[in-house]
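Entry:
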Amino acid sequence: MAGFIDTSEFRNGLKIEIDGEPFVIEYFQHVKPGKGSAFVRTKIRSLLSGRMLEPTMKSGDKVGVPDIEQKDMEFLYASGDEYHFMEKKSYEQTFITAAALGESKNFLKENTQVEVLYWNGKAISVTLPNSVDLKVIKCDPGVRGDTVSGALKPATLETGYSINVPLFINEGDVLKIDTREGGKYLTRVSSAG
């Protein structure tokens, strides 16, 4: 642990340590009731397991600052349950399990640039770019004249992940996918035809 931080310094995205486990603050709210002392409601996500907790802390409580380091790395390949990454400068390699990556693994293709998060010297998670370009490998063909506004169909991307896309998307198209909102379709980058 690299010190302590007061609840008055909380902000979204801040990494904290509680009971020897690193968390990231997803949401917080300072509450000053008419009676009683002020407190802070929080939603925090474990950086190890991904589980969400909603602890309430007294105003002025202190929590730990985790010993965290971020390194710019490149995704190399997946081997079974392990996803391998390499630091570009030192060629140092590490891996993260599929369980630790969670939803992030759905958007990783070879040579994707990511930030790998290290806690106590061990790689525990990745921060993806806000969007990635992925190729559609399987989807039903669009039917000419089918112009229902807002209609969607399923498409399988090159990583094996399925998302809903507009009817005009075809196999071979390259799509820009938002990695922050669970793989939401943004736009078509290039057409297969």
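The radius of gyration is 21 Å.
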